[in-house]
Amino acid sequence: MARRRLVLLLLIIAAAGAAAFGIRRDAPKAYCFYGIEWTGVPYLPGTAAAIYIGNTNSCIAGYHSPPDTATSYRFCIPSWVAFTANATTLCGQPAVDHSAAISGFKRLIGLQPGDPHAKRVAQIAPYKLGEKIGRCSIQVQLDDGAKCRVEDFLPEDVAGILIAHLKSTAEAHLGHRIDNAVVTVPGHFNGNQRQEVSSGSTEYGGFRYVSVVDEQVAAAAAHGLHEDRGDGKVILVFHLGGRTAHATKFVIRDGTPSLIALRHDPFLGGDDFTARVVDHMADLIKDKHGGRDVRADAAALRRLTAECERAKKALSYQQETVVTMRLDDDDDLFSEPLTRSKLEELIGDLVGRAVDLVESCDASGGDVVGVDEILLVGGSTRIPMVRDLVKDYFHGKEASNEKGVEPDEAVIRGALLLSHPHQARYLDPCYDYWHSR
């Protein structure tokens, strides 16, 4: 018995420490033989939820319970968490404008304070970073009126709080408890980071079983590429979200994804594009409205940022829009046209940096030459300039466009699909062991 426990412990340690791109279906035979519960799959409809924690938005989705198992639900909220003075938390939209709000925590999960990425976050984040149990933490100032104190929260704990909120929303919709989860993570997350996400999901969310799936694999599943029609094909996923950019090249054989190359920039995304528009409009306001600097007015800057974000998105579908903003209570109105060509001028170098990830990833494929399927994921890939540059790099090859799969919905839709019991083979590391006997 002692030897058996030692073997299992070593297997668990090895699984946690290794980088683990792809859905694990290669659990050691000893692990499967002893019948230890690893994932709990297949998950019955209504008992599992798919969860995507993004830097901008986070979503939960799942299938309804019998007899309505053919339909599904989905809820999405901004990826913001705020801590109030009385120790309660706010999640989603209510947290966005709170003085103790946190966003962008996904980039810090599992990092140590000395990590270069953590140091970069410390330079740009509106909150301070600290250290807790040897890992990077987020410092939150809490003021209950009597005294002010600073508490440290691990980023994975913040993610867990957001997951718990999403879970409670889904449970309220279903009218019953959800025990299992399929949680997505970026492909560059190592084994320890994946374990942190899993632990946060069980500790805060209260899930019994958690399966961790790469965002890129989930996106491929949303396009049906995890099954026969994608078998053996080389897939390149270009994910350009609100704050991060990834290019991942991999192949799926018999349902098992194998990584070929991966490039990512954790500090490049749609928010940077919006910031360029904000700076441009702020300069125009200063020139046309008596030297007024909206950058010095937090409330005005938030309004301008929201309007520039709207305008940026509109230019993905039209050639021109108008940025309009009321500057104060005296009916002082700022209104300025913005064309698609001007937007491209403002963000061209940033888009070039993002597409460079695609080129570098594709060139790092070793013996694997060429790409069979191109998937564009993330809301920022709707920008025509982004799509055109990717198409030009691949000599006119179009990105796959599965009907009904929007770029910013691909990951959660794929994770939802993988949570279905008919897809159990893609989540169960012991599937091959039990079904080849």
TrEMBL record:
SUPFAM superfamilies: Actin-like ATPase domain. It comes from Oryza sativa subsp. japonica (Rice). It comes from the Eukaryota. PANTHER family: HEAT SHOCK PROTEIN 70KDA (PTHR19375). GO terms for molecular function: ATP binding; ATP hydrolysis activity; ATP-dependent protein folding chaperone; heat shock protein binding; protein folding chaperone. GO terms for biological process: endoplasmic reticulum unfolded protein response; ERAD pathway; protein refolding. One of its GO terms (cellular component) is cytoplasm. Keywords: ATP-binding, Nucleotide-binding, Signal. Residues 1-20 form the signal peptide. Transmembrane segments: none annotated. The lineage of its organism: Eukaryota, Viridiplantae, Streptophyta, Embryophyta, Tracheophyta. This is Os05g0591400 protein.
